[in-house]
Fold these 2 entries.
Entry 1:
Amino acid sequence: MFKSRILGAGHYVPERIVTNEELSQMMDTNNEWIVERTGIQERRWYTPGVDTVTNMSAKASRMAMERAKISPEEIDFIVFATITSDYFLPGAGVLLQRELGLTSIGALDIRNACSGFIYALSVADQFIKTGMYKKILVVGAEIQSSALDKSDEGRSSAVIFADGAGAVILGQSHSDQHGIMSTHLHADGSHAEELYCIAPSSSGKVRISQEMIDRGDFFLKMNGNAVFKHAVVRFMEVIKEALDHNGVTKEEIDLLVPHQANLRISQYIQQKLQLPDEKVFNNIMYLGNTTAGTIPIALSQAWEQGRLKEGDLVCLAAFGSGFAWASALLRW
Ligand code: UT7
């Protein structure tokens, strides 16, 4: 059995910055409310005709490959977490494979929303452990802003979600001191409709109709309160599960990288775990919530900022639509 290790991380976010001020011109909201309830000051939204999930993830992937010091030809497999693929089908993985000029390697899509990246990492980890693949490109990327209801009705979701891409290269670890120690995946589908998007749906009469558009079936719908309440419980549970499984204490964590759902959720977890500020990575203040993109983007930025050092104990945790939640514990 091999152990897997993150060899490099990269990210890309669209150039367009959307401030709270700009949002307050579209809907009944204001900077004070958004900052107080979410911690977000600004976020990035895609520019139609310029940014796609494919080209953003390709940029993030190239950065990850460069930092891992590997060439595209060395990639054996792609695992792509997104719920906002450019096409309804085929999935995002094959489009990224083409964009990177890779031929015939497998490409797998994961649709677990905010927990998608940890699910993807877990799948890639199993392939490396068994020796089936040596280097896997693991991606989390989204364009959420095109699914946001920017009227007063959709304001609680519209102020949170954003666009961006992150990627890591997972490879074999040649030392016991580095690598993924464990991953923990959970779901509870009984809450599916607390955060969901109805259309395009395969089980209706047609997948797209004027009626569906008029009804707003293409918008992301979220019961923010319900999601928040479950999130704070599940985040804590799944982090504890990872720590207990590996026989380590919360004090030993060097960096917690939570899915960037809402700064208040991250602060709640930080407080419960009694971690000092330097041990928790947050970038939601200026990037918003990019669903499957948040954790790989955060890893890339944390590495750039020198907050990830060889041998550091890093805990990843996420909660979101499904509900699905997950954690991973690793030595950088
Ligand atoms: O990514 C993973 C999944 N997502 C999450 O984890 C998100 C979890 N949920 C949240 O982050 C929060 O629930 C929200 C940020 C979405 C909402 O914050 P909240 O503190 O739960 O607010 P609320 O929904 O309880 O609404 C409080 C008030 C309401 O007004 P009334 O009924 O008290 O008069 C809302 O209508 O705030 C109002 N409101 C807003 N006001 C200004 C809701 N959205 C806005 C807004 N601007 N954007």
Entry 2:
Amino acid sequence: MAGNIKAIKGTKDTLPSESYKLQYIEQAALDTAKAYGFHEMRTPVFEYTELFDRSVGETTDVVQKEMYTFNDKGDRSITLRPEGTAGAVRAFLEHGLFNEPLPQKVCYLTSCYRYEKPQAGRLREFHQFGIECFGAGSPVADAEIIALANSYFNFIGIEKLAVEINSIGCPECRKKYSEALKAYFEDRKSELCETCLSRLDRNPMRILDCKSPVCSEIASGAPVVLDYICDDCRDHFEKLKTYLDALNISYVVNPQIVRGLDYYTRTVFEFVSLDEKTKGLVLGGGGRYDGLIEELGGAAMPACGFAMGLERLLIAMEESGIPFPEAPKCNLSIVTAGENALLKALELSADLRSQGYSVNIDTVGRSIKAQMKFANKINSEFTVVIGDNELENGVAMLKCMDDGTQTEVSLDAFDEGFERAYMNRAVANFDSADFSALTQVDINNLLR
Ligand code: AMP
């Protein structure tokens, strides 16, 4: 029965059997963001190409090689967003959020598009959770952003993780650093790939994130930007470290981090997996971008942010065996025999669903036996059979599928009877639970 049109390479379907995992990590991200005062913003999936050229930067891999860019029917150049910050800054400016109390703190869950070579943890359509803090120049803002990301990973249960930080200075430091890089790469010019050769004059720092093995081998011996930063930038970096210490967040300084996008200034950081199976996988990263708001037409205003990939997080969780909450269950299947029973089932199911229970009724005209089988397959917690006898006597037997116990319930007060049985089962499960075996996820769920 399978169709012959397949999903596009580098994209991924999320099926109902998996989607509850994404819902869990997304909700946890929004909850963590809320605790730090970040509120959700939604922006369009496509923007004018110019927005990314000017923010991400014309000499970056993302803009030069990876963007999904096309002309629309009005012959305007449009790009599917490769990341979330540029759109968030555009919206911040377009809606005058700079007139609201500052800093403005926003978060988002978005799909992103990059034409990269698909592999584990690298997709062409992927999803990011991101946060942006507009209008805060103090390193406390950087520390809070790192703390938010860190507490999110803790909450989810990712323990083997390194927080790597660096400073890439301001445009003034960058000038000196670019000169040093130019001198270094000039000597090995003949070995560089064509793209990097074109970057040598325009933006030598971008050579550092070239994925070609030869260029990255050359780049590994290049001067590091931390040696070129000015006193103000150094002071900012030292204060960030003090605040991270105060927050009890362990970090390592990694002078090699430059991040692949042009808009970063001063602080850059990454969360890197230390788990055996996913060692080196960058789960998220971010930094400060003090010049971007002005670059996009606003007033000079500092800002910083963080983004992480949801697919990579799922990989890290699965590889480390971090449990997810249970998949949502069907609380009750109403098995019916005959038209009158079906009418009753419609009434009862509407009632219970409005009270928050998940209820299944037969919508394909199956026999009682087949309905029972289906109820079993979808793991219904309870079943009840309604036929002519039950309708005549006004009572039905509610069966708990865990232990097979049956309770007589009046059809006139079915919701009360069901609730009682449901609660009794919950209490029995609680009494027999082994709390010493609670996982972090169980505890998270109890606390929610
Ligand atoms: P970036 O915007 O490049 O700093 O990426 C931020 C995060 O998004 C990364 O740490 C990854 O978790 C995720 N990410 C970036 N590119 C991809 C991709 N092609 N596929 C899956 N996740 C990605």
